[in-house]
Protein: Cytochrome b561
Organism: Paracoccus halophilus
Amino acid sequence: MRTTRSGKALPFRDTTAVYGRVSRLLHWTIAALLLWQLLGMGLKLMLGRTPVSAFFVGSHQQVGTVLFGLIVLRVIWALANSGNRPAHGGGLRGLAVRLGHLALYAVMVLVPFSALLRAYGSDKPFAPFGVEIFAAQQPAIGWMVQAGNLIHGEGGWLLLALIAGHVAMVAVHEGLWRDGTLSRMAGRQGARL
Ligand code: HEM
Ligand code: HEM
């Protein structure tokens, strides 16, 4: 039976019924920042260099660097809570969910990592916040720059495709199966479980 709103506070850590406060904060903050990054680059591709696209793209390196830190924290938090998170069931469907989430994690890490690797190997200094994080390499480290060029852009669009699939599956859960999946990650409905 579905629970009603209980008013009980959500736990910090995850439980087998719901994602806790920390997982939710990380999930939604990272989702918003990723969409900011992808929207900005999408606008740049579609409109070229306009004030609107420059508004988003101007913060791309800073937001991307912060995102990488948040994503690393999220991976650590997921490992710390593994075995104590909502289950996805057995069989092929459960396996598909686990593989889908694993793919999201892998590409989410790889996209900013490849850009930072390229920045590290570049012959220009990397100082997204005005403070030098990586000094210029003399000469540039070729394989790092090439790996970044190869992976970063394409990886970014692959991430967008995975996110679209993820959101579509949530819509199917909510609209068709009505199994309360969204309430594990949003709202207070699952708190008393
Ligand atoms: C998870 C965070 C990030 C996402 C989702 C993301 C996504 C993207 C996308 C979709 C593109 C456009 C590729 C194209 O034109 O087809 C791009 C380009 C770019 N990004 Fe990021 N990015 C992220 C983090 C970063 C970071 C941390 C840096 C800096 C170290 C960075 C630097 C760049 C640069 C310089 C470009 C233009 C050159 C290129 O296409 O590779 N990005 N990014
Ligand atoms: C935009 C980037 C997004 C990424 C990268 C992402 C990634 C993930 C990942 C990896 C999980 C597994 C749990 C975890 O480890 O935190 C998850 C769970 C979840 N996400 Fe997202 N998500 C995104 C956006 C969204 C959006 C927009 C929605 C709402 C429509 C959503 C709804 C959910 C729900 C309901 C769960 C729990 C699913 C379950 O327990 O089976 N996500 N998300």
In short: Confidence is low (pLDDT under 50) at residues 1-5. The pocket of protoporphyrin IX containing FE (ligand 2) is lined by residues 23, 27, 31, 34-35, 78, 86, 88, 97, 101, 104-105, 108, 163, 166-167, 170, 181-182, 184-185 (CB under 6 Å). The chain has one domain: 21-192.
